[in-house]
Specification:
alpha+beta; 3 helical TM bundles of succinate and fumarate reductases; Ubiquitin-like (UB roll); Alpha-Beta Plaits; 3 domains; five-stranded mixed sheet; 14% strand
């Protein structure tokens, strides 16, 4: 199997396992808001999942795999010129094992190899009631630092993994709230449990010894040194592991430094970029590495892990000596149907001189105050993503003639009522108004992962708009010589969705053939003298009874084949 694919899948799998473990751990901590007793009771479920043989093997193997894969990534580094977010993730990844050593030794190792029952009571007491270390810092504060470091590292990884998913973008506010609420509740539970332990210790001076003896961290003895020996042995073991870890870090740093030195003196391959820029590199460099080395702006939303296509380049030189795509890149190429000269810069590692053209603009917003937010990828999907969505177009009929007969203020009033009716029906049915175009409205329905629901929501919204417009016409019949008419077109298909615009006028929208087709269907309502036209696939996905429609085939500009459409004279007659 391809090494790149193994590394990618191994990183994702092990990272998700570790994130779920940490998530469960933090949720468990939050029960400390109530009491230490509830902390220990709620831990039974947590231990049932992770303290059985399968859970234990899965957890520790994921931990080792994640460390190994990240070590491989560090050894493969060809340049220190990495995005800020990448450096944050690397540094947090280096700090985490050092924090975890003492935690793992006093909990997992103590439980599995020393027969100690590492209850929450003993951990809380040891963290807050036990004397501080030689630096005057209580163990509880180390736990807090570890919690924050691990959680931040985890959510950066989750963001890298999911930032291009439509469900992630749609629920971004809720997800960000979740990322904030979980550690907040966990810290609050840990603090309040510590406060409870300190309060008990004020009334019971032997509380520390009693709890630690009950768990097995201390043994019953009149000799103080003998009593504390189990805990001392664990601390000595943890200290040795921490020292070995620091030595290993130094060795890794020396190896990486030596590798980068040899890479620097063996730059025999030239990568030619637009504008006459030439970056010399050695074997093993990716085109994205070269861009970073030469300070050439190059889009890379996923951080160079092959999870997006924003770093893609067009090869302008001969393709004869270009290495074949690895499995990670091949999956993307096959899915999107790239030409042979379109490659991912993060995966392409040239073996000889090459000339490339980056295809995605590296910056859309130049506001420096948003640098850190953009560095972490919180700019949403600036480069766009191809996805299947439902598009609705609505347009008034004969509004130009009507506006000539009315005062400007009356025209504005009518338009706002029409926009209110349309907007409320769209939003109530989980759609979103994309834009207003004169007296027309474009709406997108993509809130659900299941497009059957998105199609049904769009149709329900269309029916509601028709009913409310009918009521509006009845209430306004004294004002209008003719009924205010409109047309609705609904279509589903693949579109490019992303942030489009400039400066302060950037908004998320959709472009492509699906949008053009939906617009054309709306225009056809005038020619076919009906109120609603939908494509047949919308009807099929929504499981509609097609006998209620008139069925036609029409030519759509830009499409090779005729499109099957369904028409209905009045939208409110639609049976869903």
């Amino acid at each position: 199997m391809d090494t790149a694919l193994v590394i990618k899948n191994g990183r994702i799998f092990s990272g998700l396992v570790l994130f779920l473990y940490v998530l469960g751990h933090l949720i468990n901590h939050s029960f400390g808001i109530v009491s230490i007793e509830l902390l220990d009771k709620s831990r039974i479920i947590f231990n049932y999942i992770w303290r059985n043989p399968i859970g234990t093997i899965l957890l520790y193997s994921s931990f080792l795999i994640h460390i190994l894969i990240n070590l491989i990534s560090i050894f493969q580094m060809k340049t220190l010129k990495l995005p800020f977010r990448k450096w944050v993730q690397i540094l947090l990844g280096i700090i985490i094992p050092w924090f975890l050593i003492i935690h793992i030794v006093f909990t997992g190792y103590a439980h599995h190899f020393e027969g100690i029952e590492d209850t929450y009571s003993s951990v809380i007491v040891g963290s807050w009631v036990a004397p501080p270390d030689i630096w005057g810092i209580k163990g509880g504060y180390y736990y807090i630092a570890m919690l924050l470091v691990v959680w931040v590292h985890g959510i950066i990884g989750i963001h890298y993994l999911c930032s291009h998913r439509s469900w992630y973008k749609r629920n971004r506010a809720s997800i960000n709230s979740f990322f904030m609420i979980i550690p907040t509740l966990s810290l609050l539970g840990f603090f309040l449990a510590g406060k409870e332990a300190l309060t008990i210790s004020n009334f019971n001076k032997d509380y520390l010894v009693q709890e630690l003896t009950k768990s097995g961290y201390l043994v019953k003895s009149l000799d103080q040194s003998e009593m504390w020996q189990p805990a001392i042995n664990l601390q000595i073991f943890a200290d040795k592991l921490e020292l070995n870890y620091l030595i290993a870090l130094v060795i890794i740093l020396l190896i990486v430094s030596a590798n980068m030195y040899f890479v620097r003196i063996n730059k025999k391959i030239k990568i030619f970029f637009p504008g006459g820029r030439t970056i010399p590199v050695s074997r093993g460099y990716s085109v994205l590495d070269a861009s970073r080395e030469g300070n050439i702006p190059h889009a890379s939303s996923c951080g160079g892990k092959g999870r997006c296509t924003t770093c893609r380049v067009k090869i302008l030189s001969e393709l004869t000596n270009i290495p074949k795509p690895n499995e990670v890149e091949k999956q993307v190429i096959d899915r999107l149907g790239f030409e042979s000269n379109i490659r991912l810069a993060c995966q392409l590692r040239p073996l000889s001189d090459i000339k490339v053209l980056p295809l995605v603009p590296s910056k859309i917003m130049e506001n420096k105050s948003s640098y850190i937010m953009r560095s972490f990828g919180f700019e949403n999907n600036l480069q766009g993503k191809e996805t299947e969505i439902v598009i609705m177009f609505i347009d008034l009929r004969g509004f130009t003639k009507l506006s000539e007969q009315k005062l400007p203020y009356d025209v504005i009033h009518i338009l706002n009522e029409y926009f209110r009716i349309s907007g409320e029906a769209i939003e109530k049915n989980y759609g979103r108004v994309d834009k207003y175009i004169g007296d027309g409205v474009m709406a997108i329905f993509d809130s659900n992962n299941d497009n059957k629901l998105n199609c049904k929501n769009a149709l329900i919204a269309a029916k509601q708009i028709s009913k409310d417009m009918k009521k509006f016409n009845e209430l306004s019949k004294d004002e209008f010589v003719e009924e205010l008419k409109f047309g609705l077109g609904i279509h589903i298909g693949n579109s490019i969705v992303g942030l489009i615009g400039h400066g302060q006028s950037i908004s998320e929208t959709a472009v492509g053939d699906t949008v053009n087709t939906a617009s054309r269907l709306e225009q056809l309502t005038k020619e076919l003298k009906c109120e609603l036209i939908i494509s047949e696939r919308v009807a099929n996905l929504a499981s509609l009874d097609k006998t209620q429609f008139n069925i036609n085939k029409v030519e759509i500009r830009g499409r090779n084949q005729k499109l099957d459409i369904l028409t209905l004279s009045r939208g409110f007659q639609l049976a869903i």
